[in-house]
Amino acid sequence: MERIMEIKGSCLCGAVAFVIAGTPKSMGSCHCSRCRKLGTSTVVFVGRDQFRLTRGREMIETIAPPPGSTYMRSFCKGCGTSLGEPLSPDEAFPINAQCLDGDPGLRISYHEFTSDAPAWAPAGQTGAK
Ligand SMILES: [Zn+2]
Ligand SMILES: [Zn+2]
Q: Exposure pattern of 4-43 as b/e (b: 16+ CB <10 Å)?
């Protein structure tokens, strides 16, 4: 019998809150400059059926993707915390791992755009040996 755990998350000011039922599908880090500057370098991908916004939908502002990119990004209007894509219409979407309050039960399994990582990034995340 498997117990489904719930992981809670929120923005810094607490206006936006959500729960993830069970373990997210994946966790990864993107080192491109856009993800870094938005503060969403490390995300968990969650399925639509396991993600529930519990508070603050009206506080979420969404930034349209620039030409050539597909990812929308959202943040809290109250505190600026980057949230990932909690309003995505997709079946699975990224949520900023920094917003999680509990241990999601999985670890970073991939790194993207490591060649774009800054020189000060830890070895192993820069693409350098
Ligand atoms: Zn907030
Ligand atoms: Zn990126």
A: eeebebbbeeebbbbbbebbbeebbbbbbebbbebbbbbb
Which one-letter amino acid corresponds to residue 103? D
- Rounded CA-CA distance 86/11 in Å is 12
Residue 36 is assigned to a structural domain of this protein: yes
Q: Which domain holds residue 28?
A: 6-116
The Å distance, Cα 67 to ligand 2 centre, comes to 14
| Residue range 53-104, pLDDT digits in tens | 999 999 999 988 878 877 788 999 999 999 999 999 999 999 999 999 999 9
**Does residue 97 lie in a domain region?**
yes
Distance 68 CA to ligand 1 centre (A): 29
